[in-house]
């Protein structure tokens, strides 16, 4: 069993190294695919938020159907290699946000080197000459790179972000603008564009405090790119989780729900120029300057959580605090060592919760239950955390059937299987959900699971043990009454 | 029918939180008592190992262990 686990973990890391793309559910398009030019972007405003260690882009665009027939498929292009790092892509009607998100799915061409697309399907086709304001938002993971790539232990860190001043689009864009929101005013380098490109004749970027603006630009052809980059101070860890495995184990007899998270973290920040100096590190601990090393992780848990643990490959890590009262349950962890750029740290944390806060009995039928848990907890950091891959397992009691789930996190796979552990007869019903390119802003998203847990299943385990022990009694009686004496048989009196 | 049927189900059953058969505080006492009864009956059965005593001691002991 352990071997299989190792093998599968190896496989996962191999696949992850290759790129997340290999596991995407995808619509394959021919390599010569060009999105039909049915649409035109009338006005496009792109906001790029660089305040966290992942990049959040929000594109608000007024689209117009310039074709002759009603259209419902809008394509969003991505550079080769970036689509595997895009997460949480959501598209909605800006004028009607209540209506919920549109269907957005990956539609890739079979050739890895060409431009890849996301396909956004409008719920109602847009009539010719009709206009619609789309609001598209997504995260790009691992897109900030430290420059210089090596710094001293207490130096400031600068990161480089490269992007296109023209918003990537598969359609002609009449008017557009890109706004950057930086975390600081310390920006040593920003690529400037000549005045001739700008519609208003200004030199780009136009700076205003911590926000930079490229544009407006008019009449930009489909697929046109203008590469620019900014380099700015970001003396914070670029915490990147290669894999997060999360278990939620439900016990009806115990009235308990047990959470466990296994993290494989790495820091993408600039690596150390010299050896790590413990003296310098201890000295800096007194005035606590900003640092590119990951020093602390904070888990705000659900109120009422108890019995937390924090262990790594060596064993229990004693540098943790658990503050719990009526209003909060905060788990504050310090890794065994400060995680500098290029260093890794893997650990597991776990805690228990009262089942009555997570499971409710359904009104219809006595055996139906509904469970609501966060899809992921994970640390909540000021600078953010990005997850390449999150595997959440919900381990239901033995004999749970008719499992249905619902979550707003885009998933790439879901399977229902059996998880066998101590004293199990058949194995526990397990729902395994996988998501890729998740960030810590999604930690409030819920996972709702509905299942039936019949009365008979509840007593299966006690009855099995009863049967087994009764057998022991019977056997002991049989064995105890065997006549194994040597010599002639003595008639019982 | 809204877009989140399961979430609605969750809200609809707000008045019925899960009530465990035994609360977490009493788990140890119940477990200990049952095991103790089980061990005691096993001991008695061991002292007087007869067919009659299989149902007399064995069945309740097994139930207690289970």
Automatic annotation (TrEMBL), chain A:
Q: Where is the signal peptide?
A: 1-17
Recorded topology in the membrane: Single-pass type I membrane protein
Q: Which GO terms describe its biological process?
A: protein N-linked glycosylation via asparagine
Pfam families named in the record: Ribophorin_I
Quaternary data: Component of the oligosaccharyltransferase (OST) complex.
What PANTHER family does this protein's entry cite?
DOLICHYL-DIPHOSPHOOLIGOSACCHARIDE--PROTEIN GLYCOSYLTRANSFERASE SUBUNIT 1, RIBOPHORIN I
Per the similarity annotation, which family is this? Belongs to the OST1 family.
Entry's InterPro entries?
Ribophorin_I (IPR007676)
What Gene Ontology cellular component terms go with this record? Answer: oligosaccharyltransferase complex
Q: Does the keyword RNA-binding apply?
A: no
Any transmembrane segments, and where?
A: 463-482
Q: What is its main location?
A: endoplasmic reticulum
Q: What is this protein called?
A: Dolichyl-diphosphooligosaccharide--protein glycosyltransferase subunit 1
Q: Which UniProt keywords apply?
A: Endoplasmic reticulum, Membrane, Signal, Transmembrane, Transmembrane helix
What is the purpose of this protein?
A: Subunit of the oligosaccharyl transferase (OST) complex that catalyzes the initial transfer of a defined glycan (Glc(3)Man(9)GlcNAc(2) in eukaryotes) from the lipid carrier dolichol-pyrophosphate to an asparagine residue within an Asn-X-Ser/Thr consensus motif in nascent polypeptide chains, the first step in protein N-glycosylation. N-glycosylation occurs cotranslationally and the complex associates with the Sec61 complex at the channel-forming translocon complex that mediates protein translocation across the endoplasmic reticulum (ER). All subunits are required for a maximal enzyme activity.
Pathway the protein takes part in:
Protein modification; protein glycosylation
Tell where it localizes: Endoplasmic reticulum membrane
TrEMBL record, chain B:
User: Where in the cell does this protein reside?
Assistant: Membrane
Protein name (Swiss-Prot/TrEMBL): Dolichyl-diphosphooligosaccharide-protein glycosyltransferase subunit OST5
Give the UniProt keywords, A-Z.
Membrane, Transmembrane, Transmembrane helix
* Protein topology in the membrane: Multi-pass membrane protein
**InterPro entries for this protein:** TMEM258/Ost5
Quote the function comment for this protein.
Answer: Subunit of the oligosaccharyl transferase (OST) complex that catalyzes the initial transfer of a defined glycan (Glc(3)Man(9)GlcNAc(2) in eukaryotes) from the lipid carrier dolichol-pyrophosphate to an asparagine residue within an Asn-X-Ser/Thr consensus motif in nascent polypeptide chains, the first step in protein N-glycosylation. N-glycosylation occurs cotranslationally and the complex associates with the Sec61 complex at the channel-forming translocon complex that mediates protein translocation across the endoplasmic reticulum (ER). All subunits are required for a maximal enzyme activity.
> Domain of life of the organism in this record?
Eukaryota
Q: Name one GO biological process term.
A: protein N-linked glycosylation
- Similarity field: Belongs to the OST5 family.
- Transmembrane segments in this chain: where? 28-47
Task: Recite the lineage of the species.
Answer: Eukaryota, Fungi, Dikarya, Ascomycota, Pezizomycotina
A cellular-component GO term for this protein: oligosaccharyltransferase complex
Subunit note: Component of the oligosaccharyltransferase (OST) complex.
């Amino acid at each position: 069993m352990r071997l299989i686990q190792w093998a599968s973990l190896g496989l996962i890391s191999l696949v992850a190294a290759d790129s997340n793309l290999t596991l995407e559910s995808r619509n394959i398009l021919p390599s010569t695919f060009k999105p039909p030019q049915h649409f035109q972007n009338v006005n496009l405003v792109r906001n790029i938020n660089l305040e966290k260690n992942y990049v959040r882009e929000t594109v608000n665009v007024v689209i117009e159907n310039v074709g002759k027939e009603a259209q419902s498929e809008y394509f969003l292009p991505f550079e080769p290699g970036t689509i595997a790092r895009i997460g949480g892509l959501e598209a909605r009607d800006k004028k009607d946000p209540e209506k919920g998100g549109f269907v957005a799915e990956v539609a890739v061409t079979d050739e890895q080197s060409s431009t890849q697309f996301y396909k956004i399907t409008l719920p109602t086709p847009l009539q010719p000459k009709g206009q619609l304001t789309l609001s598209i938002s997504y995260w790009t993971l691992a897109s900030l790179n430290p420059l210089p790539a090596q710094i001293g232990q207490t130096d400031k860190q600068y990161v480089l972000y490269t992007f296109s001043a023209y918003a990537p689009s598969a359609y002609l864009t009449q008017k557009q603008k890109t706004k950057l929101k930086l975390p600081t005013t310390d920006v040593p380098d920003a690529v400037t564009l000549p005045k001739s490109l700008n519609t208003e004749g200004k030199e780009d970027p136009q700076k205003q405090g911590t926000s930079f603006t490229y544009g407006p630009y008019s009449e930009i052809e489909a697929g046109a790119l203008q590469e620019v980059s900014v380099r700015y101070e970001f003396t914070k860890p670029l915490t990147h989780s290669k894999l997060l495995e999360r278990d939620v184990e439900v016990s009806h007899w115990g009235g308990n729900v047990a959470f466990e998270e296994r993290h494989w973290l790495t820091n993408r920040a600039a690596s150390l120029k010299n050896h790590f100096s413990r003296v310098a590190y201890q000295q800096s601990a007194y005035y606590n300057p900003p640092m590119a090393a990951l020093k602390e992780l904070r888990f705000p848990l659900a109120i009422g959580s108890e019995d937390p643990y924090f262990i790594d490959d060596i064993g229990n890590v004693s540098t943790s605090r658990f503050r719990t009262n009526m209003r909060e349950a905060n788990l504050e962890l310090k890794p065994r060592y400060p995680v500098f750029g290029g260093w890794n740290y893997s650990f597991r944390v776990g805690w228990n919760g009262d089942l009555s806060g997570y499971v409710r009995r359904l009104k219809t039928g006595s055996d139906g239950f509904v469970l609501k848990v966060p899809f992921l907890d994970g640390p909540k950091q000021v600078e953010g955390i990005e997850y390449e891959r999150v595997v959440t397992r919900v381990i239901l009691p033995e004999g749970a059937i008719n499992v249905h789930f619902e979550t707003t996190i885009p998933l790439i796979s879901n399977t229902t299987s059996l998880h066998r552990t101590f004293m199990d007869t058949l194995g526990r019903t397990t729902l395994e959900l996988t998501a890729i390119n998740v960030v810590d802003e999604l930690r409030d998203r819920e996972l709702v699971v509905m299942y039936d847990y019949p009365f008979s299943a509840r007593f299966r385990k006690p009855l099995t043990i009863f049967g087994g022990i009764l057998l022991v009694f019977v056997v002991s009686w049989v064995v105890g009454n065997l006549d194994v004496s040597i010599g002639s048989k003595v008639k019982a009196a | 029918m809204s877009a989140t049927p399961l979430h609605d189900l969750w809200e609809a059953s707000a008045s019925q939180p899960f009530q465990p058969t035994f609360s977490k505080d009493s788990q140890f006492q119940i477990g200990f008592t049952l095991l103790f009864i089980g061990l005691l009956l096993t001991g008695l059965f061991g002292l007087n190992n007869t067919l009659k005593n299989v149902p007399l001691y064995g069945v309740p002991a097994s139930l207690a262990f289970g």
